[in-house]
Amino acid sequence: MTDRVKILVVNGPNLNMLGTREPEIYGAVSLDAIRKKCQAACETHGFAMKWTQSNSEAVLIDTIQAACNNFDWIIVNGAGLTHTSVALRDALALFNGKVIEVHLSNIYAREEFRHKSLITAIAEGAVVGFGANSYTMAIAAIAEMQREF
Question: Is 58 helix (H, G, I), strand (E, B) or coil?
């Protein structure tokens, strides 16, 4: 095992369609392009990163459970499950590292049902509304917090 900070990035349902799905809301950048930008940011900070996306709630939960004792941080974009999945929230709560929630759009400026996140209360913080930059801002926040330890 390496001494490097290990980050798992978890992406929920429909994020595989970024770049073509409602670009006026989510932007024109693909999830793979975001992954590459995050990989570069992690390399800059000396972090190891694993990236995952699934449209299946069960796969996301299994992935988070498997991350226990194997990762220091989870950056999670739960997508629509953010607002509905107690099971996803509970899996993140049992993770023994730290969690940062991210969203491409400002969920608080959208439909009322999106204003409630089940994840925020168990996360170190949330980065919302900065498009693809929300992910790299979360990585930068981890770098800042690691300096505090």
Answer: helix
Based on the residue annotation, tell me whether 103 is a catalytic residue of this protein.
yes
pTM score, two decimals? 0.92
Contact 148, 121 (CB under 8 A): no
Cα 15 from Cα 25, distance rounded (Å): 12
**At residue 126, what are phi and psi to the nearest 5 degrees?**
-140, 140
Sorted by where each begins, the domain ranges of the chain are 6-148
Instruction: Report pLDDT digits (tens) over 96-144.
Output: 999 999 999 888 777 786 788 999 999 999 999 999 999 999 999 999 9
Distance CA 78, CA 57 (A): 9
26 annotated active-site: yes
For the domain made up of 6-148, the CATH class stated in words is: alpha beta
| 8: three-class secondary structure by DSSP | strand
pLDDT of residue 71 exceeding 90: yes
Which of 26, 45, 115, 135 does the annotation list as catalytic?
Answer: 26
Query: Distance between CA atoms of 15 and 26, rounded to whole angstroms?
Result: 9
Among residues 45, 103, 108, 115, which one is catalytic?
A: 103
